[in-house]
Each structure stands twice: as C-alpha cells, then as structure tokens.
Amino acid sequence: MKVGYLGPESSFTHTATRTAFPEDTLVPFHSIPACIKAVEFNEVDLGVVPIENTLEGSVNTTVDYLFHQSSIPVGAEIVLPIFQQLMVSKENKENWKEIRRILSHPQALAQSQEFINCHFPDADLEQTPSTAYAASFVAEHPTQKIAAIAPKLSAEKYDLAIVQENIQDVAINRTRFWVIGSDQVELPHIPVERQKMTLAVTMPNNMPGALHKALSAFSWREIDLSKIESRPLKTTLGEYFFLIDLVADKSPELIQFALQEIQQMGGEVKVFGNYKVHPIHGI
C-alpha cells in the first residue's frame, strides 16, 4: 500500500506516518493540498496530513481544503508529541550564538517564540514548507550563519549539530494528524485511545442563537463535545461554519438523531469522519 504524507523525509508528519505504517511504501509531498490531491487522484491509497497543534491550534490549510474542495473521508487520527530542536551545520557548532537567520515551518517558528525572543531577538525568521526542508537547507549552506528548528531525525538525516534541545514553548506539545482516504483505517501498531467524530455545521445566516440551537442538539442528549471552532465560509464577510469534534461513545443512532435535528433547523452537516484516535508514545 502507498501512503502519502507531508514531506520531506524526517519531518514530524513523516515520523507519524512511519510509526503508523511501518511496512508500507511512504510517498512524500511538498504541501498539504498536494498530498490530499494525490489521494483524490488515486496516486496513493491513503494520506497523512496535520490537522491541529497544541500551541498553534488548527492547521487551516487542511481544514479548509477538506471542507471546501474535497469529500475524502477521515479514517483515523494519530497524535504525536512534538519536540523542537535548534540545529546548525557542524561548521557553526562552536559559534552557534552568532546565527542571523532561523528557518522552519511557520508552526514550528510559532511554537518556539519564547526561545527565539529570548536568545535571538534580532534574527531573521524564514518560513519553509516543512521543518525537514529547513534542516536540508542548512546542511546545503554550511558556512552561512543560519539555523533550523526541526525534529531530531532531521539532524540525524542531514548530519547537523543540535545546539539547543526541546525549545518549544510548552513541555506538553502535540500535533494531531488525520489519515485520509478511507472511512475506517486500522493501525494495529499504535494503541487506541478513544473513538471520535469530526463534523462541520453551517447554520442559516442571521438565525438568532444559531450556534446555541446547534449545540443544544448535542447537549440535551449528553453527547460530549471535545472541540468547537469557527472558520470562514469564504462567501460573504461574517459567514462561518463550525468545526466540531465529539466523543463518539454514544450509540450511532443517538448521534444521528442530533444531526437530523440540526438539519431540521435548516443547518447543513458535513461529517469528516468517525474514527479511532491513536496516541504515539516514546518518541
């Protein structure tokens, strides 16, 4: 089986994908839309894309593409602990405090803001398509006063020196990844934490108390919601859809009745998936 992921190799997405699919062929893609399109056009059987980080919240590129442009189902979720490392070429190992540019994925830069502001307040921050790309760029320009923020695997792959470890702003930093391309994806190599459902709800425009009415369909049935946020519909300013995660421990019929109640109020419901959550430990 071919599994696509947001590459390149040694990125966090690669780590999650390799752990979940150790015996399959992994195919890197340069962007989240490219990975999703590869699943749509059957270039790969499944895809793994980031959906949310503890510090930075939802990965809007993934959410918006799957809502507006795709009907690919979510079949599983992988939760990976994230540890950011500051790395330089071995030529700059002794004088790493003199670096002038720091490269990384926008999420990794945002996750390390406190460290950057404290130690490199004047450094130029440069966004890259992935953390692994930043590491490869540093390796290709060993004499420049530059550093990358990336995982340990990137330092190993590109022969870089880690000069500061675990520089993320909080100790408990995790990223959620969705496995897309099938309604149900079994990941026997990773334990199961719980069952979850993710859906998007769009209520009629200008309906008084629209969000309250939608949430009441879950509330009185005692269906536990683990997340709710709004995203622009990209139609008219001020119009949104609501991205909702719910704990799918109730009977499927009860959840379906809640969705039907929302639809009877004039709302639209798009179900991304009803899937198992798989936490990764020890990485």
Would you summarize the structure shown here?
It contains 9 helices and 15 strands.
Characterization of the model:
The chain has 3 domains: 2-81 and 173-180, Periplasmic binding protein-like II (D-Maltodextrin-Binding Protein, domain 2, 3-Layer(aba) Sandwich); 85-164, Periplasmic binding protein-like II (D-Maltodextrin-Binding Protein, domain 2); 194-275, ACT domain (Alpha-Beta Plaits, 2-Layer Sandwich), CATH 3.30.70. A hairpin with a 7-residue loop joins strand 13 (225-232) and strand 14. The chain is of the alpha/beta class. The chain has 9 helices and 15 strands. The longest helix has 13 residues, at 252-264.
Helical percent range? Answer: 25-40%
Named at the architecture level, the CATH assignment of the largest domain is 3-Layer(aba) Sandwich
Q: Report the order of strands and helices.
A: EHEHEEHEEEHHEHEHEEEHEEHE
Distance between the termini: 24 Å
Rg over CA atoms, rounded to whole Å, is: 21 Å
Task: Please render the helix and strand layout as text.
Layout: E1 2-6, H1 12-20, E2 25-29, H2 32-40, E3 46-53, E4 57-58, H3 60-68, E5 74-81, E6 85-88, E7 101-104, H4 106-111, H5 113-119, E8 124-127, H6 131-140, E9 146-150, H7 152-158, E10 161-164, E11 174-180, E12 194-202, H8 210-219, E13 225-232, E14 240-247, H9 252-264, E15 268-279
Parallel strand pairs: 1-2, 1-3, 5-15, 7-8, 7-9
Antiparallel strand pairs: 3-4, 3-11, 5-11, 6-9, 6-10, 12-14, 12-15, 13-14
Helix pairs in contact: 8-9
